[in-house]
Amino acid sequence: MFLMYINELISILERYGIKIKMVADDVKLYLCIVNDVDVGMLEYALTALSQWARDWQLTISAEKCCVMHLGTVDMLHKLSVDGSLLPVKSSCRDLGTHCRI
User: Which residues contact 61 (CB under 8 A, 6 or more apart)?
Assistant: First the structure.
């Protein structure tokens, strides 16, 4: 049953050029951002993610979400999911291990 939920999410996010990695119910989204158009696509994708969760009556654990910048340019835009501002971090916990940039 879970695969029915998640397969739809994959196709929704791919419309915005988002790359997705999943393990069980954990989803990582990433996108190469080179201009404001890319930022807009990411914002639209996060809105679509929120709408998908509402449609399926699922909740997104915003407190477990974060933004990590890889590369030399930090994005100045603030991103949010379901009205919750996503913190920018230099490391995150993933499957019990810490990832650091």
Answer: none
Running DSSP on this structure, what letter comes out for residue 67?
B
Residue 97 is encoded by which pair of tokens?
């291990």
Give the 3-state secondary structure of residue 13.
helix
What's the pTM value of the predicted model, to 2 decimals? 0.84
Torsion 81-27-57-12 (CA) sign? positive
Q: Which residues make beta-bridge pairs with 29?
A: 20
Could you tell me where the DSSP H helices lie in the chain?
2-14, 36-55
Residuewise pLDDT in 10s, the chain (101 residues): 667 777 888 899 999 999 988 877 778 888 888 888 998 999 999 999 999 999 989 888 888 888 888 877 666 788 889 889 998 888 777 766 656 65
What are the helix and strand counts (H, E) for the chain?
Answer: 2, 6
